[in-house]
Amino acid sequence: MKLLFIGDVVGKPGMRLLSLLIPQFKKNNKYDLVCINGENSAGGFGITKNGVLKLKKYGCDVITTGNHIIDRKEELPEVFKLPDVIRPLNYESSFPGRGWTLVEKNSARCVIVNLQGTVFMPEEPKTNSPFIVIKENIKIIRKMAPIIILDFHAEATAEKIAMRYFLDGKISALIGTHTHVQTKDETITAKGTAYITDVGMTGSFDSVIGMQKGPIIERFLGNNDERFKLAKKDVRMDAVEIEIDNKNGKAYSIRSIQIAENT
Q: How wide is the angle at C-alpha 153 spanned by C-alphas 148 and 158, nearest 5°?
């Protein structure tokens, strides 16, 4: 299986770029499975049913999420009725949606799992320990399919690296999301798990992680009345390409990529 995992899409600029790139990937049969983190797809904050349907139309197979989905809380019941849209597995059980999905592509069975970290993360949604929750569920998940892809939506680098060692050899890939800054530490462990601390984002790079620079700087200067505004220039897509053995679920290559608009 050749997987493309795309970094957090931020609002209309990111969505526009994906509307151009993903159909081209599909036309060329470049990837067996395309996944994306969509928690910021709606104006940079949250996710909507309409946004999910657009991503599906472009060719995204699975959409993962994270803490910003509560910014559009009213949308969530309908969002999570849609197939292959998941939220962190370690959210409290009353939260809408589910934490994994099983897909089959070109005779390869694959489970995509979503977890959220707890270090330096918001208190809402209420989030249980990702380590304990995945420990309780990993045997069940491994029985479902040989290929397991984890989107670990977390702030702290240390928490992501610790999860890498905790699940080494038990999953095919651990892809970090949330910080919007692509790290250059992609690797394949000796036990066959592909890893990157953060895959990055899809949106404006003339920005502070997708938002206009001015209001962000004003916030740091103490002006808390400034509202974040979506940036629009220098739009790029961050992603990783991962190749995985269909039978044993071990990854054998990972490559980070970045594609700019109009290239």
A: 100
How is domain 2-260 classified at the CATH fold level? Purple Acid Phosphatase; chain A, domain 2 (3.60.21)
Higher per-residue confidence, 51 vs 262 = 51
263 pLDDT band (50/70/90 cuts)?
low
| pLDDT, tens only, 28-38 | 999 999 999 99
User: In sequence order, what are the beta bridge partners of 2?
Assistant: 243
| Alpha-carbon span 114 to 151, nearest angstrom | 5
The answer to whether 228 and 216 are in contact (CB under 8 A) is yes
**Residue 45: how many other CB atoms lie within 10 Å:** 18
- Using a 10 angstrom Cβ sphere, with 0-12 exposed, 13-18 middle and 19 or more buried, the burial of residue 5 is buried
Q: In sequence order, which residues have a C-beta less than 8 Å from that of residue 7 and are 6 or more positions away? A: 36, 37, 177, 180, 182, 198, 199, 200, 201, 202, 237, 238, 239
| 48 within 8 A of 18, measured Cβ to Cβ | no
| pTM of the model as a whole | 0.97
Structure token pair of residue 226: 């400034």
Q: What local confidence, expressed as pLDDT, does residue 247 receive?
A: 94
Residue 224's pLDDT band (boundaries 50, 70, 90)? confident
Tokens of 16: 């526009």
Cα(180)–Cα(217) distance, rounded to whole angstroms? 17
Which active-site residues does the annotation give?
Answer: 68
Element (H, E) at 19: helix 11-27
